[in-house]
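Everyone, carefully examine this protein record:
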Amino acid sequence: MYEVEVVMLDGTMMLAVVNPADSTVQTSAMSASDDDQGTEDGGSEQDSENNESDRPGCRTESTDRRSSYLRRFRLCPTGSKAAIVRRMDSVQDYWVARAQLEWQVELGADEAVLDSSVDRYALSHDAAAPVRVAVGASAGPPPVLAPEVVVDAVAEAVALAGSARDLSGLAAVQTEFAHCDLRKGARSFVFAAGNPAARLMIIGEAPGRDEDIAGLPFVGRAGQLLDKMLAAIGLDRNSADPVHAVYITNILPWRPPSNRAPDPAEIAMMLPFVQRHIALADPDIIVLMGNTPCQALLGYAGITRIRGEWTEVLDRPALPMFHPAYLLRTPSAKREAWADLLALKARLKALR
């Protein structure tokens, strides 16, 4: 009786026949036998089993080792040869792949070199033989890695901002600033809105969802409330008259993910651009709306404590005020905001 192993190799069914008499092994590619009448030929599985059992000189055996993928095989001794008929699962699983690997190891394959076999006889005799490097052998000294270059993002921001000679130039260099990761997730670069010649400059925190879509600061619900607040004291962001106009910008030109608060590193990188923005716009009065611009330009925050108290930013009078978004969440704070608006109106009137 011959011993038979069936394996899959590169999509081809391989048959290995072992002769116990002389321990020789014969391998060959297999194809489905014409005698195998399974479900593919229209016959039922029961009919196939009956045909197998009725064939003289043949018997059906099961194998435990390959039982997960080889259902059965029929061994028919015919002198020095053996014929096998098999049915296998169409989808290879873990055990099929493992059987393939074990078969290759048993044949002496101990390393993977290429995806396909190489015909060594077709190669030129002058071709250089492949160089084998033993595992663990030293292949020479390790390569010397170049030292990591640490970029000072704040220093580069200072240099870029200082190179701008006007507001359009500042917007251009700030747009190309590559060290702020917020630009990768934002849809728009939100620079400013309003009349750059206005006497009043309002600095907010960062764009929100609506601002990111429109590419302009303060256009959402908070922006609509701001417009109403400004209109109450005779100001309009769209006015061509610098006396009644407003110029609006933010500390950050890109929207933070999920409208989170800007972190200190992001504020530090953008601060040189904001300072240059103030210098180029040259407003008479600055309004700091919210904690972020206060922290960036004053060095401290706590808007509920410092709002309404006049201070200075770059030698210009500045007034911290509640952010309109905070007023939407806390309507009771509108009374203090109205008092700050009246103080701002009086200060602007005194400058005429």
Q: What stands out?
A: Residues 264-281 form the longest helix (18 residues).
